Amino acid sequence: MVATFEPKKDYKVVGTRPIRHDGYDKVTGKAIYGADFKLPGLIWGAVARSPHAHANIISIDTSEAEKMDGVLAVITHKDMPKAESKMVDLGEGSVNFKWASEKLMANKKVIYKGHPVAAIAAIDRNIAEEAARKIIVKYEILESVTNVVDAMKENAPIILEDLIGDDLGEKVHDTNMSEHIRHDFGDVEKSMKDSDHTFEGEFNMEMVHQGYIEPHNATAVWNEDDQIKIWTSTQGAFPARTQIAGILQVNVSQVKVTPLEIGGGFGGKIPVYFEPIAAILSKKSGRPVKMVMERTAIFETTGPTPGGKIKIKLGVNNDMKINSAISEIWFEAGANPGGMIGPAAMCIYAPYNIENMRIDACDILVNKPKIAAYRAPGSPQVAFAMESLIDELCDNLDWNSLDFRMKNASKSGTRRGDGVRFSKIGLEEVLSAAKASNHWNSPLGNPLPGIKRGRGLATGYWFNIGLKSAANLAVNSDGTVILTEGSTDIGGSRASMAMHVAEVLGIDAHDVKPNIVDTDSIGFTDVTGGSRTTYATGYACWEAANNLVNELKKRASILWDVNSEEISFNDGVFSHNNEEKIISFKDLASKLGDLGGPATSTGSVDLSSAGDGFGMHIVDVDIDVETGKTDVIRYTAIQDVGTAIHPSYVEGQLQGGAVQGIGWALNEEYYMLNDGSMANSSFLDYRMPTSLDLPKIDTILVEVPNPLHPYGVRGVGEVPICPPIPAIANAIKNAIGVRLYDTPMNAGRIIDSLR
Q1: Are residues 277 and 288 both part of a single domain?
Q2: Is residue 500 part of a domain?
Q3: Which of 572, 607, 642 is the last residue of a domain?
Q4: In this structure, are residues 138 and 132 in contact, taking their beta carbons and an 8 Å threshold?
Q5: For residue 205, what are the contacts with CB-CB under 8 A and spacing of at least 6?
Q6: What is the pLDDT of residues 213-248, one digit of tens each?
Q7: DSSP string computed for 78-115
Q8: Hey, which of 142, 186, 250, 551 has its CA 20 to 30 A from 643?
Q9: Is the pTM here over 0.90, yes or no?
């Protein structure tokens, strides 16, 4: 990484808080989400699903469904094109087209409960769903495995017979382990032996879901010219196009994806589920087909984040320095490979300067839905393990845990667990801000009788990503600018993109009109995820704005009959010869019709690097020792955000991540039964926190500008979900004197620990 941009502070637009451009449409109900979208002649699709987590398919009888009045098409796996067995990177996670196709429509066997076995298109939703219930499938039920320990046993049932595992470069057959990776630096064994103290622990986490409110949806038209049009709520129209084309075995140019508004995703709306099925139903019926997923199916069949097991051993010396670290990560991949072990390995030791370290990570198949990204995928799990063990060793050695973290903090040049060395990072500044915070320096106070109170803290890390983005600009005669871009907005990115442009052009943020368009109308843009959007698409917008300035200098040169290279531009004003001639951006825009016509520009980037993000959270909890109920009574999130483009949305990201982490820590889990089914597949039983469960989340924004971005941006959306789980674990230990090693740390586990 090379420092490219010097930090600035004299911004006019960056750092302000304009009203979001899509705000009025959303609060008045005018915004179009997937469930709102309609086309002439639209019919509905529905899916028949397996009641078993693991079973061979003996036969599928669709005859009764096909006889129903109003049914226009029925498909099974025989209607699915034979997709190529090829891994493709989606920006945040990867997909194998063959396995993805068989995940969407079972071939010879089902490998998770709710696995689709057939799909129906009918004149309305009720008929489609009734027809789905009439499909008769005969199964040979197989033993299922729903955790990594059982899946790795010698006699475990094999989930994917065609899987060839990779065990440190060696091919392995008849296995549920798709991949085993290792990172090894220094002399781990000797340094561990030479350490003054060693500590180790095993931590177990259950699978959890992103919990977005809006269901998965898709509307598809397969035209007579073999052009496929898709409307869907997705985190990435182009990654969706890649998946749809790969599963349907057509060229990407045949697929046009229009992203609709999205009611939450958090990584879970990067994979496609209904889009290819709706397209095939459309082709077979000759009508547009719409599908909307029910909540039970969302829990049982769409990608949650992996659970698993993590073991860590740390060696420390009496000088409070970490000498050695060894870890073993076993993550659930779900029924297809891809359990986010790579990011987990990148994150596990990231906040600490450790010379001798080893990481072994295994991606393990289980009879659960294929996992998907969930906000810093893999990092919250390893943060729970690492940060809990850090506090445990500090407790045992009577060391101040914050001072210990400061003494061992990563800095520029520190080697990460996977070998990469950090460039400019702000962890030390974050820790200093935490130490100086009002929360850390306030007394805990006295709880009510029967209540134990504790305080905990923890750090978190995400590496952030860059990838590809494109943006186009066009000037209107009234001096406003049309911004066209391809990053779906799931966190206020329309505003931040407009602000990138407005800062360069010297105009108001609301004079930039952002539009998110389909895959035929903008250059390739990667997924909205990985904390890349404001960084990468913002960079493309900045580049487009500077290119527009250069184009407008040419127009001003025509107006003044001078060389364009002699024209300067500053704060929205073009000038020549020490301001002998000046014209504002808006005035020049009104004259473009006589100066060469429409003025447009484009910007595109492909960024291999992004600024690393670190945060620390502090939490106070009250625990009722009779019932085990835990109340979060105070919470502070501190994070290096680089430069906060729109501080309100940055604060919202920190608060949202903290809330999701609180739910993960205390309540949320896939509660699995022995038959491989999920017992709590509804919002009634899958307990997510509401506003009634939470205090106000305070935020402290630390700004250490990222030299890789023109405004110093660092991605902010991933880091905030990493510290909450270990911070709450440490607070519980501080309150009741007992450490919990498994999530969720609910009332039952707390009561059991106190017995």
Answers
A1: yes
A2: yes
A3: 607
A4: no
A5: 307, 308, 309, 310, 381, 384, 742, 743
A6: 999 999 999 999 999 999 999 999 999 999 999 999
A7: GGS------EEE-SSSEEEHHHHHHHHS-SSEE-STT-
A8: 551
A9: yes
- Record the tokens describing residue 461, joined without a space: 């890390």
- Residue in the structure block whose two tokens are 């094109």: 81
Answer whether 115's CB lies under 8 Å from 301's CB: yes
Decide if 369 contacts 301 (C-beta within 8 A). yes
Structure tokens at 228: 């496929």
17: how many CB neighbours lie within 10 A of its CB? 13
Are residues 252 and 296 both part of a single domain?
yes
Write down the residue that tokens 């799990």 correspond to. Answer: 381
Q: Report the C-alpha gap between 737 and 735 in whole angstroms.
A: 6
Name the residue range of residue 573's domain.
23-31+465-607
Task: Determine the average pLDDT of the residues in 284-310.
Answer: 98
Q: Note whether 466 and 611 are within 8 A (CB).
A: no
700-711: pLDDT as tens digits: 999 999 999 999
Task: Please answer whether residues 313 and 349 qualify as being in contact, where contact means their C-beta atoms are separated by less than 8 angstroms.
Answer: no
- The verdict on residue 344 lying in a domain is no
89 confidence band (pLDDT: 50, 70, 90): confident
Q: Which of 690, 675, 597 is nearest to 142 (CA)?
A: 675
Whether residue 377 is contained in a domain is answered as: no
* Structure-token match 């941006």, residue found: 713
Give the span between the Cα atoms of 250 and 227, in whole angstroms: 9
553 and 684 share a domain? no
pLDDT over threshold 90, residue 577: no
> In terms of domains, do 676 and 627 share one?
yes
Strand order in the sheet with 165-167: 170-172, 165-167, 177-185, 356-365, 322-334, 308-316, 197-205
Q: Rounded to 5 degrees, what are φ and ψ at 194?
A: -80, -10
SS3 content of the chain, % helix, strand, coil (to 5): 30, 25, 45
Query: Is 722 within 8 Å of 376 (Cβ atoms)?
Result: yes
